[in-house]
Specification:
This protein is an alpha+beta fold. Helix content is about 25%, strand content about 45%. The protein has one domain: OB fold (Dihydrolipoamide Acetyltransferase, E2P), CATH 2.40.50. The chain contains two helices and five strands, in the order βββββαα.
Length: about 100
């Protein structure tokens, strides 16, 4: 079980009316489940970033971080764009 405390959590997925949050702490990955209704409306989507407070394995408070969510989405997009480009061909490859 995840220790009590404050964490950064990311929405992994939704199952029915539950949000499954991933939390990385102390080199471990935890999954927390929270009622979707208990999350701020603007953060009720996959990959949303929250600052959460956990007590006895339950999320007791969650604050949506729109800025961090956007930054993570932009970084992922840039990585994808870089990976999707073909590497430049060398002259040797052109001669074959």
């Amino acid at each position: 079980m995840i220790p009590d405390g404050a964490y950064v959590a990311v929405v992994d997925r939704f199952e029915d009316n539950l949000a499954v949050l991933e939390v990385s702490a102390d080199d471990d990955l935890y999954e927390l489940v929270a009622d979707e209704e208990n999350l701020p409306k603007d953060g009720r989507h996959s990959d949303a970033v929250f600052h959460v407070t956990v007590r006895d394995g339950d999320v007791i408070a969650a604050t949506y971080d729109a800025e961090e969510t956007n930054e993570r989405q932009n970084r992922a997009k840039h990585r994808f764009d870089r990976l999707s480009k073909r590497p430049p061909q060398t002259e040797e490859e052109d001669d074959e």
